[in-house]
Design brief:
The chain has twelve helices and 14 strands. By secondary structure, it is mostly helical. The strands form six sheets. A three-stranded antiparallel sheet has the order 1-2-3. A three-stranded antiparallel sheet has the order 10-11-12.
């Protein structure tokens, strides 16, 4: 790919970020009636003012606004980040037991006080980003406090890794499911992936000895427990002793993990750990490219035993594939990865960008038709994947152009 093509690639990403994604959340996210941010918006822009508000959406909003402010120093994003931090502190923080509630209603009253570790991880991730954006010492202290709660109540001292869900008082919960779509098992790839992501961001600002040990352990868990090296995929669910309880895989998680593993290894600054993580990352990226990417550049959702079992495409695996393939190109220098990244971005531009209502569609079918039932904003539909992806792409393209 020529320097001109790389510049064109970067220009199209910057245009989408500045012209569509960021304006959508700036103009539509704020709940002017009840405080904080809206909990739900339909595909065509209709807001449900009484929708519950979830920890995942609100933590990801805090991360997004903080990251964008670090990127462009526009005070509007600092103000939104502060709004998100304040809302989480006032309405999601459990003043009795510590940690963040899973869900509140539209007026901020608790609906679900479970301590789902996936949600605690995103709160740590977001608090660490907010600290880096505005140097808020209280956010760093809270992030460290949540880290200690996770380590005290969720870490499996016998088999390693972390259980999925605790009750409101941090006792072990009977139901381990993150959502209704998940298996009721003690451990999952997804939970560990986002703990890895959170601990990586926290270590950037708090190089604590115990945190370093746990981050190193998480990388080892992925290498020895979660990854199926023979197949080149990540297993999804496990029992307490790490016996696999599922045999399917999602291409989006595989490619997202490929670059998050490298980011974790990078902050640890250990050549042996970096080499191990990069080998796994390249294996995952190659298998995703071979098995999961369609001829049009789109990434299918799910596979099993080498076959596609869900050919639909969702927004977040598409953007994660762009970042993951760029990461693989930076590691191996193979042109196929760079071409795949550019083709995946073109697929997003052609099929996912909503030219009428803004932002991106949640899901499209193999013919390119958007799913009309899926919202633009919800507990699970947020700007984190899209905005983070754009920021990562711009950073990596700059690095590639400097090296060329």
């Amino acid at each position: 790919m020529s320097p001109e093509q790389l510049k064109s690639f970067g220009y199209s990403v910057k245009r989408e970020l500045d012209g569509n994604l960021l304006p959508f959340w700036l103009d539509n996210a704020i709940d002017t009636t009840h405080g904080g941010f809206i909990g739900w918006m339909s595909k065509d822009g209709v807001v449900d003012p009484k929708a519950p508000k979830g920890l995942i959406l609100n933590a990801r909003l805090l991360w997004t606004f903080s990251a964008v402010y670090r990127f462009n120093r526009d005070p509007r994003w600092r103000d939104l980040a502060q709004r998100a931090a304040d809302y989480l502190a006032e309405f999601f923080w459990d003043t009795l037991h510590g940690g963040a509630l899973w869900q509140v209603d539209f007026e901020g009253r608790r609906l679900d006080d479970k301590k789902k570790i996936y949600g605690q991880a995103f709160y740590v991730y977001a608090l660490a980003e907010f600290y880096q954006a505005v140097n808020d010492q209280a956010s760093l202290e809270r992030a460290c406090h949540v880290f200690n709660l996770i380590e005290t109540h969720s870490r499996d001292q016998t088999h390693g890794g972390y259980i999925e869900v605790c009750n409101g008082d941090w006792s072990a919960a009977e139901d381990s499911r993150l959502s209704d779509m998940d298996m009721d098992e003690k451990k999952s790839m997804n939970n560990h992936l986002h703990l890895l992501e959170a601990y990586t961001n926290l270590y950037r600002i708090w190089p604590d000895t115990i945190l370093r040990e746990r981050l190193t352990e998480l990388l080892d868990v992925f290498d020895r427990r979660i990854a199926d090296r023979a197949k080149g995929h990540l297993n999804h669910f496990f029992d307490e002793s790490w016996q696999p309880r599922s045999d399917d895989y999602t291409f989006g998680h595989d490619i997202e993990a490929s670059w998050l593993l490298c980011e974790a290894a990078k902050v640890l600054n250990d050549p042996a750990i970096a080499s191990q993580s990069q080998r796994l990352a390249l294996r995952l990226a190659q298998v995703v490219l071979t098995e999961g990417v369609d001829h049009d550049g789109g990434l299918c959702y799910r596979g099993q035993h080498g076959h596609i079992t869900d050919p639909n495409r969702e927004w977040w695996p598409q953007i994660e594939s762009v970042v993951g393939f760029l990461n693989a190109y930076e590691l191996a220098g193979e042109q196929a990865f760079l071409n795949a990244a550019r083709k995946a971005w073109s697929f997003i531009e052609r099929h996912f960008v909503d030219r009428e209502h803004g932002e991106w569609f949640w899901r499209i079918d193999p013919t390119g038709r958007p799913d009309p039932t899926e919202p633009k904003v919800s507990e699970w539909k947020e700007p984190y994947h899209g905005v983070r992806g754009c920021l990562e792409i711009l950073r990596r393209l700059q690095h590639i152009m400097v090296r060329s």
